[in-house]
Design brief:
The complex is a heterodimer of chains A (213) and B (424). Chain A has 213 residues and is an alpha/beta fold. In chain A, 30% of the residues lie in helices and 31% in strands. In chain A, strand 7, helix 4 and strand 8 form a beta-alpha-beta unit. Classes of the chains: A alpha/beta (213), B alpha+beta (424).
Chain lengths: 213, 424
């Protein structure tokens, strides 16, 4: 692969992409292809010194950590689960805000002495959360439809993102414990921020101005 | 991972499968890579020697206490332990040679004068240093003990730059050096009377340069001005040399020690810029890698596109204290395998393999040939002796491009013959 001297940004398709592109547009960064239809994974932009990588949400920190992308956009939930070693988070984009919670059936007694079964896709976060409380839990890794697990006795509670809480309510569940406030962060590779400092800092500062009301 | 899956992995990695896989993060060097690695190892050690650094060779394993005591806890989870069958005590396989060398200086050599030591050897990390990295780096490094002045840091940083420049080939032309100073945050945390928990939490957020999180933390704490705004600004203090000027303004009220730290960074940055005008200099006053181990100036080498640092080092004045003598100390380390990877990725032509010469007879058959072979080998040439094949005949070695040929007129055993180089 020919070396690209500009800035490579890792973006995940879906909600984050939809919310991030309007922030990048005032900087003159717009994809030259329709992201919904293109099959290309490396997408040039209207700025020759910036290109986009279309990645899966949970992979964004990995691409940035390895230096395959200089900066990226990732949810705090993904960063917490990933560990974020060697990554900078210089900017909170304040988009896709939600909460990471422990949720379970209404009136579930979390203080009970029994060993909890916890279903989640955030196994590291869940392990850390319950370990900090001194609780032993059995973790069950799921990839989607977390809310189903307590309903069919696969698990006692779940650890998941809650936005409106509609899915929880529709299934007679409720948030029990707040773990963290989640928003979307701009992340940067440690080495890239040092070796391409001027370009990346300029981009971050421009983004800050777009975000400032 | 389900038990089914782990059984499968187990089967794949045992001898029964016939695949002979290596453990994760463990790799080996085949001839061409091993030759390049050895060349780099020798030239680096020769450079260290020419700068006056004496080589030491610390042991692969030590009692765990002496490996960990001076590392500030950073090495604890990285160190693989085994029980010593002789003493029943716990042994650690070294994860970093620096504390070993500090022990040698403080305890074994016990000199009062400035001591320069260097070393090379394999270390073992319990887990890869993040991203699919190696668990068995070939660590090389140099440490300077007994001098607390910035001049010592400058000497070590210069040696680090020369080592990376020589090893990194073309890619190193774009070398960037990152400079920082851990005392700035440490002094500020102390002066602002942060609790240990607060210091850790803020440290963690600073490591991520998470400006918004830092603001959030500070908002929840009862910290007085001017400390609050100084902590808030700290994460932004990175960039070119002009950052130092900004820092002097922003951190003006942080006290003499912080001012002295900024002075040291400026001093070393200026000296490096004069010595190496072509490298990129980056100042980052919130860079806190190795915070618990280091006590002063810290520096690291980066090249664009690598995603991680090629070498790093800095001052650590307290390491010797655990061994009875707190000596001023500064040094750097690098992973030769990583350096080689970067140079291989950027140098178009690898140094060509050395020519091999085939000697068509086994040793002891022809005295003239034997002495010619010896002379060639002594002069550094590669000579491969013939080995007979299954049919009793000698086939030339496949990797040889030249051979020794008998020339001359006589048919006897002596004078008329000579063995000359010819194409094969």
């Amino acid at each position: 692969m020919a070396t690209f001297e500009g800035i490579t940004i890792a973006l995940s398709k879906g909600r984050i992409l939809k919310d991030t592109l309007p922030l990048l547009a005032p900087l003159g960064i717009e994809p030259t292809e329709n992201l919904d239809t293109t099959r290309k994974l490396i997408i040039p932009t209207t700025r020759a010194d910036v290109r986009l990588l279309a990645v899966r949400a949970t992979d964004a920190p990995t691409y940035v950590q390895h230096g395959a992308a200089d900066i990226g956009v990732a949810g705090k939930d993904v960063l917490m689960e990933h560990g974020g070693e060697g990554l900078y988070e210089p900017l909170d984009l304040g988009i896709a805000k939600c909460q990471l919670v422990v949720a379970g059936p209404k009136d579930f007694d979390l203080s009970g002495r029994q060993r909890l079964k916890v279903a989640t896709k955030y196994v590291n976060v869940a392990r850390r959360h319950f370990a900090a409380e001194g609780r032993h839990v059995d973790l069950i890794k799921l990839y989607g439809s977390m809310e189903l697990a307590p309903l069919v006795d696969l698990a006692d509670v779940i650890v998941d993102l809650v936005d409106t809480g509609n899915t929880l309510r529709a299934n007679d569940l409720e948030p029990l414990v707040h773990i963290a406030d989640i928003s979307t962060r701009l992340i940067a590779n440690r080495a890239a921020l040092k070796t391409k400092h001027t370009a990346i800092t300029a981009l971050i500062n421009d983004l800050k101005e777009v975000l400032a009301p | 991972m389900s038990s089914n899956e782990s059984n499968k992995t187990e089967q794949l990695t045992t001898s029964a499968s016939g695949l002979w896989l290596l453990p994760d993060g463990v790799e080996e060097s085949l001839p061409s890579e091993a030759a390049a690695l050895e060349k780099m190892r020798r030239s680096s050690l020769d450079r260290f020697r020419s700068w006056g650094f004496e080589q030491v060779d610390p042991p692969l394993v030590e009692f765990i206490e002496s490996l960990l005591i001076s590392s500030g806890g950073d090495l604890d989870l990285q160190t693989v332990r085994v029980t010593d069958q002789m003493s029943g005590r716990m042994l650690g396989v070294r994860a970093d040679m620096t504390p070993q060398v500090a022990r040698i200086d403080a305890h074994r050599l016990n000199r009062d004068e400035v001591t320069r030591l260097c070393y090379v050897g394999s270390v073992l990390h319990a887990r890869p240093d993040c991203f699919g990295g190696t668990r068995v780096p070939l660590q090389i490094g140099a440490e300077l003990f007994g001098h607390g002045d910035i001049a010592a840091d400058l000497e070590v940083a210069s040696l680090m730059i020369e080592t990376v420049l020589a090893a990194g080939g073309k890619g190193a032309e774009k070398l960037h050096i990152d400079l920082g100073h851990v005392s700035i945050y440490r002094e500020m945390a102390e002066a602002a009377e942060l609790s240990a928990d607060q210091e850790d939490a803020l440290f963690e957020a600073l490591q991520r340069k998470a400006v918004n999180d830092i603001a959030g933390l500070l908002a929840g704490w009862n910290i007085e001005e001017p400390w609050r705004s100084m902590f808030a600004e700290l994460a932004n203090l990175s960039g070119g040399m002009d950052v130092l000027k900004t820092a002097r303004g922003v951190l003006a009220d942080a006290g003499d020690k912080v001012k002295a730290a900024i002075d040291s960074v400026e001093c070393i940055a200026t000296a490096l810029r004069n010595q190496y005008p072509n490298i990129g200099l980056h100042v980052d006053l919130a860079e806190l890698r190795g915070y618990r181990f280091h006590t002063g100036v810290v520096f690291a080498a980066f090249v664009p596109g690598t995603g991680q640092e090629l070498a790093r080092g800095g001052r650590y004045d307290c390491a010797g204290a655990a061994f009875g003598r707190a000596r001023p100390a500064t040094g750097f380390t690098a992973d030769l395998k990583l350096l080689l990877k970067v140079s291989a990725a950027t140098i178009e032509s690898q140094p060509e393999a050395q020519e091999r010469i085939w000697a068509p007879l086994a040793a002891g058959v022809d005295a003239a040939l034997d002495s010619r072979v010896r002379a060639l080998r002594d002069s550094g040439r590669v000579v491969v002796r013939a080995l007979s094949g299954p049919d009793g005949k000698c086939q030339p070695d496949a990797n040889c491009t030249r051979q020794l040929q008998r020339t001359g007129d006589g048919e006897g055993h002596s004078t008329g013959f000579s063995w000359e180089l010819a194409a094969l």
